[in-house]
Specification:
Blueprint: E1 2-12, E2 30-39, E3 42-48, H1 49-55, E4 61-65, E5 71-74, E6 76-78, H2 90-97, H3 102-107, H4 112-121, H5 124-140, E7 143-149, H6 156-172, E8 176-184, H7 193-208, E9 214-218, H8 226-238, E10 242-247, H9 254-260, E11 265-268, H10 274-281, E12 286-289, H11 291-297, H12 304-309, E13 314-316, H13 330-341, H14 345-350, H15 354-359, E14 376-379, H16 385-389, E15 398-401, E16 404-408
Parallel strand pairs: 1-4, 1-5, 6-7, 7-8, 8-9, 9-10, 10-11, 11-12, 12-13
Antiparallel strand pairs: 1-2, 2-3, 5-14, 14-15, 15-16
Length: 411
């Protein structure tokens, strides 16, 4: 059955908002006192609520009236997370605040390698339960699609275990989970880096391909330098994987490799150079900023203002993980990033909707326009500017996924 939902004080549609470059408020294509007509989870029409209800008065349509001021926008898309983990890295946070660097902790056998140990000890059912809990937290924050990486396994058994956890939980929840194979996160003990990547290609990647079409690698001197990673990534591409890269978090080089490989996105970018910024501005590789990692590690934000001004497609993601980005609150991170980098609401919100969808290769969500999925969230406010202004404290009180109302706490 079709349904008409409204009226909303404002609907942020992003109907014709550009995929790349800087944006201003008028680019958001906001419709006021409007509603949405939905059929089988897909948007049919967006327009004045009065027009929609009069037009369909004689048809068999369910009308859901919204009371009080509300702003409707596309459901949020978190395009970079590490949400499958066990254990805690609170000790890492304390050690960093006592003067040790992320790299020093990793070199000592801590950091990511601690999480690898705990994931290896955890059962699949335990990891599924933890992921379920985190997905529900994300859902309450307005996230309707989230990418989730492996990378805390580092061997065939546990990398595949993580991907299976994502795959199985995706079948149990209403929101969408997009898995990514990150076997090349760091090199485990007992391997040379090149031989470990060979092991991933022969023993893990073919089986991982049955569970995901996406692959990632951490491009850093302490993880996998460009010259070692490049042939591995080419081999993954030849196996049919879409690529995304952890790039330029602590040093440059990853962005150029991402563009060279035709990667969907280059993520992190805290250490990216002016040359890399120009490269992303003229490429089809999405620049993904991860403010949660900057907050967790106490380091500079990615140069998002410069990236936009250079013409890049900028997405923003939470990087939710137990080590460098334990916060997980995407809206709070966006509000803080926008203030520091002087991003408009249009630039920030597009970075967690249709531009984030682009980083995942998804073309059916992130805008509220005909033929797109009705993945949407509504905030109890009369003004879209309140969403980022309140830096994560204003939460959506309604959430729809493919037309199904999953959250309704509106009074």
């Amino acid at each position: 059955m079709q349904q008409i939902i409204g009226p909303f004080t404002q609907i942020v549609t992003f109907k014709q908002t550009a995929l790349k470059g800087p944006l201003k408020a008028s680019d958001m294509d906001i419709v006021e006192n409007a509603g949405v007509r939905v059929d089988s989870g897909v948007i049919i029409e967006v327009g004045p609520f009065e027009h929609l209800t009069i037009k369909e008065a004689t048809h068999n349509v369910m009308v859901r009236e919204i009371s009080g001021p509300h702003v409707l926008m596309p459901g949020l898309i978190d395009c970079h997370t590490h949400m499958v983990w066990a254990g805690s890295r609170a000790a890492d946070f304390e050690r960093r605040n006592s003067g040790l660097s992320y790299q020093e902790i990793l070199a000592s056998g801590g950091g990511i390698l601690d999480t690898v140990k705990w994931v290896g000890q955890a059962t699949k059912e335990a990891l599924k339960k933890l992921l379920h809990q985190r997905v529900l937290i994300h859902q309450s924050d307005g996230i309707t699609t989230q990418e989730i990486k492996s990378g805390y396994g580092l061997d065939a058994q546990n990398e595949l275990k993580m991907l299976e956890v994502i795959h199985e939980v995706n079948r149990e929840v209403k929101v969408d989970l997009i898995p990514t194979f990150l076997g090349a996160h760091v090199c485990p003990k007992g391997y040379e880096r090149a031989s470990y990547l060979d092991y991933l290609l022969t023993e893990v990647a073919p089986k991982a391909k049955l569970l995901t079409h996406r692959a990632d690698a951490f491009i850093e001197a302490e993880a996998f330098p460009v010259q070692i990673a490049q042939p591995y990534l080419m081999a993954l591409k030849n196996l049919g994987f879409d690529l995304t890269l952890h790039a330029d978090q602590f040093s440059s080089g990853g962005v150029a490799l991402a563009v060279q490989m035709g990667a969907k996105s280059a993520d992190h970018l805290e250490a990216t150079t002016s040359q890399d910024i120009a490269l992303l501005g003229t490429s089809n590789t999405v620049a993904v900023a991860l403010p949660g990692a900057s907050l967790g590690l106490g380091m500079a934000f990615a140069p998002t203002r410069a990236l936009l001004d250079a013409g890049a497609c900028l997405a923003i993601a939470s990087d939710w993980n137990p080590g460098s980005a334990p916060n997980g609150d995407l809206l709070a991170q966006c509000g803080i990033l926008a203030a520091h980098q002087k991003l408009t609401a249009a630039e920030t919100l597009s970075g967690i909707t249709f531009r984030a969808a682009q980083a995942l290769g998804l073309t059916d969500r992130g805008r509220l326009v005909p033929q797109y999925l009705f993945d949407a969230i509504a905030f109890p406010t009369h003004d879209y500017r309140e969403i980022l202004y309140q830096q994560g404290t204003l939460k959506p009180d309604m959430l729809w996924k493919k037309g199904d109302l999953l959250i309704n706490s509106a009074t």
